Hints:
45% of the residues lie in helices and 14% in strands. The protein is an alpha/beta fold. Helix 9 links the parallel strand 6 (163-167) and strand 7 (182-185).
Amino acid sequence: xxxxxxxxxxxxxxxxNYSLDPLHDxxxxxxxxxxxxxxxxxxxxxxxxxxxxxxxxxxxRQLCDFYQIPYQEKYKPEINKAFHSxxxxxxxxxxxxxxxxxxxxxxxxxxxxxxxxxxxxNKAAENIDPEHIFCSFDLxxxxxxxxxxxxxxxxxxxxxxELIFVDDKAKNTAAAAKLGIHTVTFxxxxxxxxxxxxxxxxxxxxxxxxx
Length: 211
């Protein structure tokens, strides 16, 4: 088994909690058809925007159309504010684990299906090298597409088995595991135990002893 070199973290609800509730509240306040809004709430797809295929201006128009909101230019900064209001505090267990990994010489990275509008609000930016932050809109891919993990592996110039990947969605960790990546489906109560289990497997420990 190869030595672990990198631990790759998802962002939303792994590094910090995130909710679209403030955006949904804004949409509910501005819709012209409350029944349609209720039927469609939470069903809008951000995939093209997260892949970098749609501009923020177009996203705002699509969002308003989907939720039956008569579009106005002045809504763009209000929608921006609603997106940012969903950002919560850094999850303490994640920060502690990242610091422990760093002390062991294991670099922390990010791989996120991310909203470009939030790119400048990454709470992990102070703790993780910008060269180790990988976002869907830069790669043009979304998890759990296997190609996105391959792209990150190539950029890090390492083997799949030298990576740990942490995500809160089981479908994303399952796709990574099929490639040979060590994976953890995030739970703040068990994250330290699960990562240390990977780091203390017999083969990894024997390799560490040889170094």
